[in-house]
Design goal:
The protein is an all-alpha fold. It is built from 17 helices and no strands. The protein has 2 domains: 230 residues, no CATH class; 199 residues, no CATH class.
């Protein structure tokens, strides 16, 4: 790990793709793992184990999701330190991220009875399902420190354009998980507990492998220079950045949760159709993440080096690639959307209902490009207060739009309100972009 600025390398199409493509490939593996978990436990001739794994995984994912700020904040701060050529600070940031992740995981282990109790009060299930889900969660919660610390490792690697390592970590974790799923459930007959133990071992294996990928940082004495690691100003900056991102993420989650709840007003069929179509948005988000992450790394490095022209080039080049991908996905949804709906649900009434709202999904990839890219750009520049504030603006606009449009257009009005919130997020951040460049120029 040298003290030479990473930002000296020209920002080219090849460099953008080198960052983005491994992230695209890594994200492809995420739904595959969930499908394997379901398929393996589905070999048990009983519905309860499938439901239990699904419920337990969703609850833990929601809990861990709270720490998603650690990935984004670490990327922004580390990319800027790399752009300034501060190798010592890059190493110290890894230590801080790992400490936050491990501490967060230990906290969840300590309060696990409260978490499990609260989760089943919010989302009650049958006694059998709750019992199996509790077994699953009580095993998996012990890998919470590893799962959350991985957010920090992932962000740290992305900041330095090392997304190939991120892909390898994902492949190793998923490979271990799938292999142990088959062994523990099908060979040993451990059922739900086998799925949980497979994930537990995979997450700790991922952390160990991730630390090995970060071994260069541990060769720099700054990773254990405790005066630097616990520097009050640096810690305060990290806390502010992470808090802003967490508030922004909670507001975003509020939009999607309320979208599902409001959709329930139009009946079970419409609610099911909305759930199916939201998978299109998840697919779009996973795909566009590659170029958003590229923006985080490249903008962050340029911002740290106070190179305004490079900030702009990174923002434009990554966004052009993202727009191209968005248009391609819109065309794919137009051509194959009905077939995708039929794969995701076999209920004829839900299929028909989902098709009636498919145009919203065809438009979504192009509309979402703006907000994902501006998120990446502002994360790289750690302009997280702008992200928080503009997310609040978008949230308010969404609430007002839904209130006005739903009585007039029913579920179409709800989808329109959601798309308006997408446009509001992108548009409001676009208005703040000149301030980002001015801040970069000021250094």
């Amino acid at each position: 790990m040298t003290d030479a600025p990473v930002d000296a390398t020209p920002i080219t199409n090849r460099r953008v793709l080198k960052i983005a493509i491994p992230i695209l490939l890594a994200n492809v593996t995420i739904p595959v793992l969930g499908a394997v978990d379901t398929a393996v436990v589905g070999q048990i001739p009983d519905a309860a184990p499938i439901a239990a794994v699904g419920v337990g995984a969703v609850i833990l994912s929601a809990i861990y999701w709270v720490f998603g700020f650690l990935r984004m904040g670490t990327t922004g701060l580390t990319s800027q330190a790399a752009g300034r050529g501060e190798a010592g600070e890059v190493a110290a940031l890894l230590t801080r991220a790992l400490m936050i992740g491990l501490a967060g995981g230990v906290f969840f282990i300590l309060i696990q009875p409260l978490l499990i109790w609260g989760a089943f009060r919010l989302s009650p299930a049958s006694g059998e399902v709750e019992g199996l889900a509790e077994t699953y969660m009580r095993i998996r919660i012990w890998s919470a420190p590893a799962a959350i610390a991985m957010y920090g490792i992932t962000g740290w690697l992305i900041a330095q354009e090392r997304t190939r390592e991120v892909l390898w970590i994902q492949l190793i974790m998923n490979g271990v998980n799938v292999g142990l799923d088959l062994l523990f459930v099908l060979s040993f007959g451990w059922g739900v507990a086998g799925v949980a133990w497979a994930t537990f071992i995979a997450e700790w294996s991922g952390l160990v492998f991730g630390l090995w990928m970060c071994r260069e940082a541990f060769r720099h004495s700054a990773w254990r220079d405790w005066a630097r690691v616990f520097d009050r100003i640096k810690l305060k900056r990290m806390a502010v950045v992470n808090t802003d991102i967490m508030i922004r993420s909670l507001l975003l989650q509020g939009i999607f949760v309320s979208f599902l709840l409001l959709g329930g007003r139009f009946g079970d069929v419409t609610l099911a159709a909305n759930q199916v179509l939201l998978q299109f948005l998840h697919i779009t988000g996973y795909a566009l993440d590659g170029f958003a992450f590229a923006a985080e790394a490249l903008v962050g490095q340029a911002y740290g080096a106070a190179a305004v022209a490079r900030v702009r080039r990174a923002a434009v080049l990554t966004s052009m690639w993202a727009l191209g991908l968005g248009v391609f996905m819109a065309l794919a949804f137009w051509a194959f959307g009905p077939m995708m709906i039929d794969v995701m649900t076999k209920a004829p009434e839900v299929q028909a209902e989902a098709r009636s709202y498919l145009p919203w999904m065809i438009a979504a990839p192009v509309i979402i490009v703006g907000l994902t890219q501006f998120d990446g750009i502002f994360i790289g520049a750690t302009r997280t207060a702008d992200m928080r504030n503009m997310m609040f603006v978008a949230f308010v606009i969404y609430v007002v739009a839904a209130w006005m449009l739903m009585p007039l257009m029913q579920n179409h009005g709800l989808w329109l309100a959601l798309h308006i919130s997408f446009i509001a997020r992108a548009g409001s951040l676009a208005l703040r972009y000149p301030a980002l460049e001015r801040a970069a120029r000021a250094g």
